[in-house]
Design brief:
Elements (H helix, E strand, L loop, with lengths): L1 H5 L5 H22 L2 H53 L1 E3 L5 E3 L2 H5 L5 H16 L6 H18 L5 H29 L7 H11 L2 H6 L5 H43 L2 H4 L1 H19 L3 H53 L44
Antiparallel strand pairs: 1-2
Length: 386
């Protein structure tokens, strides 16, 4: 039995199984094979070393199997991830063969529609403002073409479109500022506010170079051109504020001339229209719209002047008719006096001659011409105009 236990062979599980079997049956075999002395040390010295060795071998086998399973699972996971990426990053070439590429760019192009639409709208606004005549227009057009080319590849062109949109907006402001400057120069209005006129000139100076400078952002260009517009508008406001006051003074003088010929009676509707223009000018002036007020006052002054001329002509013609009638009356009176001396009329009633107390015409009543004169103050302030 000692030889059988000490010479175990075969696989480790089989050794463990045999050892366990021997342990269960040890009490039966030991009395037969060993003396009392051998039975005492047989179990401890012969059986236990083999049992412990078999158990240790089983533990090592189990740990190795667990490690192998873990490595297999990790390998399968990596293979699965790599397979998915390989499928997603493929593209089809012109001949139908698969070509490595970016799956996002080929299968799902970037959505640039909204940014492109805003850039196109800003471009049209700039063109409508007259930006095509500016040197900076070609610079922005080149950037716009580059953004469209990037968009055509399916890449994300949002940032490019946003920058182009800002530059077109700045270009629109640039064109408007140039138009304001031209108007101020043509109408010789700069002298009304030279401080702001010079500020506007400074903002426009070198602006074409700023548009060509890639380090100058579109938002910075918007701010700069916006300041130019603000400066030129201040010049126009100062000019028209003074011009409106002068035009109102002239309109009041024209109204007085029209009132002197009783234009409110002779031309009631036209006179009312002139008064309406004056009051519209006062309303615009109260809203600090000096240019609109100036135009209303100019219109009122011109219409009052025309009204004065028309009514004056009619009054002169009427006066000439009255003078002619007066002369004819005087001549008739002289002729009647001569007739009375030659052939006097008696007190007897004659056919065709009315009685001395006969009423030939109904009595007429006339309105007071002064009631037709509109009451408009000679001066007006922006805070008091209505």
């Amino acid at each position: 039995m000692y030889d059988r236990v000490s010479n175990f062979s075969g696989s480790q599980p089989e050794a463990v199984y045999r050892c366990a079997f021997f342990l269960r049956r040890g009490r039966t075999y030991l009395p037969r094979l060993c003396s009392k002395e051998k039975r005492t040390r047989g179990f401890g010295q012969l059986v236990m070393p083999h049992a412990l060795s078999a158990a240790q071998d089983w533990k090592e086998v189990t740990l190795k199997r667990i490690g192998l399973i873990f490595l297999l699972l990790t390998a399968f996971s990596l293979i699965a991830c790599k397979t998915t990426q390989s499928v997603d990053t493929s593209d089809t070439g012109q001949d139908g063969e698969l070509v490595p590429g970016d799956a996002t760019d080929s299968s799902q192009p970037a959505d640039n529609a909204d940014a492109r639409s805003r850039a196109d709208a800003a471009r049209q606004s700039a063109i409508a403002a007259g930006a095509e005549g500016l040197d900076a227009y070609n610079t922005v057009e080149a950037l716009y073409a580059a953004a469209r080319a990037l968009d055509a590849t399916g890449a994300d062109a949002t940032a490019a479109y946003v920058d182009v949109e800002a530059r077109y907006t700045a270009l629109e402001n640039y064109a408007k500022a140039r138009a304001l400057k031209k108007r101020i120069d043509d109408e010789e209005l700069a002298s009304y506010n030279m401080t702001d006129y010079n500020r506007g000139e400074q903002e426009l100076s070198g602006l074409d170079a700023a548009f060509a400078d890639p380090t100058v952002s579109g938002n910075a260009l918007i701010e700069r051109t916006g300041r130019a517009i603000s400066s030129y508008n201040k010049v126009l406001n100062a000019a028209f504020n003074q011009l409106a006051k002068t035009a109102r003074t002239e309109a009041i003088a024209a109204k007085r001339r029209a009132d002197s010929v009783m234009a409110g009676v002779a031309e009631r509707e036209e006179y009312a229209a002139c008064v309406s223009e004056m009051r519209s000018g006062d309303s615009s002036f109260s809203l600090h719209n000096s240019e609109s007020a100036y135009r209303h006052y100019r219109t009122a002054a011109e219409r009052f002047e025309r009204l004065y001329d028309v009514v004056s002509v009619r009054r002169r013609q009427a006066q000439e008719a009255i003078d002619a009638a007066r002369r004819r009356t005087e001549e008739s009176a002289q002729f009647a006096a001569q007739a009375d001396t030659v052939a006097p009329i008696t007190d007897e009633n004659l056919d065709g001659i009315e009685a001395p107390d006969a009423v030939l015409l109904e009595e007429e009543t006339y309105e007071n011409p002064e009631d037709a004169v509109a009451d408009i103050p000679d001066t007006v302030d922006a805070e008091e105009a209505q």
